[in-house]
Amino acid sequence: MTEAATGTRRSCAATHARDVADVMAELASSPQGLTSEEAKRRLLQHGPNALPTGTRRHPFLRFLAQFNNALIYFMLVGALAAAMLGHLVDSGVILAVVLVNAIVGFLQEGKAENALAAIRDLIAPKAHVLRDGQRISVPMAELVPGDIVLIEAGDRVPADLRLLRARSLRIDEAILTGESVASTKRAEPSADAAALGDQHGMAFSGTLVATGQGTGVVVATGLGTEIGRISELLGSVEELTTPLLRQINRFGRRFTWFAFVGAAALFAFAVGLRDFAWDDALIAVVALAVSLVPEGLPAVITITLAIGVQRMAARNAVIRRLPAVETLGAVSVICSDKTGTLTRNEMTARRVVTSEETLLVQGAGYDPAEHRLFADGGSEGHATTLSLIRAGLLCNDARLHRDDTAWHVEGDPMEGALVTLAMKAAFDSGETRAEWPRLDEIPFDAAHRFMATLHHMPMAEKVVLVKGAPEAILAMCDRQEARGGSAPLDAGYWSERIAEAAGEGERVLGFAMRPMPGDAQGVDFADVERGLVFLGIIGFIDPPRDEAIRAIAKCRSAGIAVRMITGDHAATAQTIARQLGLGEDAAVLTGQDLDRLPLDGFAAAVRETVVFARTSPEHKLRIVEALQAEGRVVAMTGDGVNDAPSLKRADVGIAMGIKGTEAAKEASEMVLMDDNFASIVAAVHEGRTVHDNIRKVVGWTLPTNGGEALTVIMAIFFNFAMPMSPVQILWVNLILAGTLGLALAFEPSEPGVMRRQPRRPDAGLLTPFILWRIIVVSLFFAGISLGVFFWALGHGRDLETARTMVVNMLVVLEIFYLFSVRYLHMTSFTYTGAKGTTPVLIALAVVILGQLAFTYLPVMNAIFGSSPLTLADGTLILAIGAASFVLLEVEKHFLRDRFRAE
Ligand code: ATP
């Protein structure tokens, strides 16, 4: 690869200064592109067009990283202290806890990292190339020198290109040159000595196309490119961290200090006031502090987040930045594009209107076969209609192709529909395009909402054809096409026709033309500003997605507002909004209305409005900001290069995976693989589940640790025999590490997740409910354990048996509590609740086997000072556990509503 790459590099040194034909000849390429066999051969020779990515951390380093945590340091100090006191078993158990945690964390995080890497591959960028004369998309890595590549606004340039054609092409080269103003490109050679930023005939890999379109031949790939030379490492693996994880880590550090100070005080108290031998007291408080520390929490939360990412990917929502997993759960407004997100983006031209006639077209989809537009094949009487349809075919970049089952579009679906329409009107698209070759164009841009193309007409004359938003096109025209020539523009007639079509929910395009002198070489904005002849309008149907209708209903019950922000016509948008269930007469504002609003009226207007039509990307940004100023958590979709600022600004920026530009994807937190609104709602659903699960993990871990610790603290405080020996406290920690708490990370969604209001975005992890539970459950567990302890002693059990009962009691309580915590928002007294999930059952099996071993294996009895229990004692423990479960459920039932708002 290196040799080949440097080979290409050397020839590239002066590429910018050479003629295009020269470069093409040297690369043995042609305007139709390489053949696929040749491309394959070159790929073998030059290697993939990829830069080495940041290597993943070595597994051993990842394993070591598991220990890099304040809570674990604390545990290790505890182990050291125990060893120095000669309590080798205690020290060994602490180390075992640490090790089990590290292994579970290491394995699960490894799995999570792999899954994330696989998910990232789903959104690996593609490049548009010509191969065998056909425009196709290929993975960027498969580009080879000599490939002809098409680039347009929003693309990342996929390799170093010598430009063959550039149309309004401006490229942001900041990553290479540091220059923040996009540089204008053209196909001419530049001076040999030109610096990188002045090589206007080149497009460099990794730079971002700001506007326009271009075609170039690949001159260097992979490490041979300019970016390859300066940056050896790109795209290193994203760290698994989120605000919540940082919050947990901060909490962990504080907690460690708290445990440390508390333990020291307790030690002083035990030795000074309770006459404990200092080494007994020390080992007891060490065990206690160790049991109090939630060392497994950070790893379990990371795993919960990673599982959320995987579940979202399975529902077509690919997370690019991990914090989005959390934010998604708090989203209170979704601002969505219309076309393709709420609608299917499967366009069919349905209405063709000229000054002479209105035709309604039959058929759906792109198949032109069955529905001839004119029974006679298109007679003279329809000349105006035919020029309109021909303009639609020529002012068009889409291609249709048929595979075994159906017709497909390569390019914009609306343009595909225009090709189908032309075929229904008996045009042969290939022939017509060959007869009217295109000489130049002004590409479509959402900012000016039209595109124009310059063509040679068969009679040696030239013509500019324009299509776009009908108001924009009408503003350019003063005449209209009519039988036998042209007539003055009848603006009233057209606005009625447009309103008719838009009122039916059709997306409307206007068309116009202008004859050009025979020597015209190109088309400029000045050529289309005025004096055009209006040809007519075409209305397209683009039905709402059924799943979007359902998803919008779901949003309503979930307290999430939906706003449609579209570039389309107000009436079209309003009709589609009605069909989607966004409201019978949803309030609509256009971009112009927004511009006219006084500053102080903007926020109120945005609050009341459901549909924003004819908006530009700047409006999107202002809308997001206004919503955020009211404390809303905003998810916003986008696809174009100009959407990047609003995507970045939104709490969750969502880019379209299919029609989105690379620029939009890079600016966003999440990419929709299917461009489908329903997938956003699915991701919110999963986001809420993740948040619930994190709360469950915390809500289970902290109170159970508290319960254990409190049992021992009370013993010291009230000066009675320790209900558990230090090594037994540690055992409880060991058996629970990586079992019960971890199982909660895998919990499925609770049934009512999308029937709750969004959570308050500022609610921290330790909500009043969790704090309440920490206190109540700790006290409850400690009370029950001590009760069992004294009952056992009072009924003639020896100390070993009483302590064994306490250990088993605690573990049984924690198991029952787990079942209670699994449903925060409803009762756990259900069949599914009792059945558990596979992870819960596995964890349960491990804990039960562990407890049986602890209680009945002689060797364990020797190590842990436990002793076998009778069936009656065992049954008593289980009965108390079950009763406590009922009590906790009653408590949840009464407090559920109070804490629901969290
Ligand atoms: P949304 O923002 O919901 O996706 P949209 O696709 O209509 O809606 P834009 O892509 O910004 O938004 O398009 C705005 C308008 O520009 C369209 O309503 C249409 O009138 C016009 N338009 C869109 N695509 C083309 C095109 N390829 N050629 C000419 N005009 C176009």
UniProtKB/TrEMBL annotation:
Topological relation to the membrane, as annotated: Multi-pass membrane protein
GO-annotated cellular components: plasma membrane
Transmembrane regions listed in the UniProt entry: 63-85, 91-107, 255-276, 282-307, 697-722, 728-749, 770-793, 805-824, 836-857, 869-890
One Pfam family named in its UniProt record: Cation_ATPase
One example of a Gene Ontology biological process annotation: sodium ion export across plasma membrane
Keyword Translocase belongs to the record: yes
Main location class: membrane
All residue ranges annotated as the Cation-transporting P-type ATPase N-terminal domain in the record: 14-87
Domain of life: Bacteria
Keywords for the protein's UniProt record, in alphabetical order: ATP-binding, Cell membrane, Magnesium, Membrane, Nucleotide-binding, Phosphoprotein, Translocase, Transmembrane, Transmembrane helix
Localization of this protein: Cell membrane
Family that this chain belongs to: Belongs to the cation transport ATPase (P-type) (TC 3.A.3) family. Type IIA subfamily.
The protein's name in its UniProt record: Cation-transporting P-type ATPase
Organism (species): Roseicella aerolata
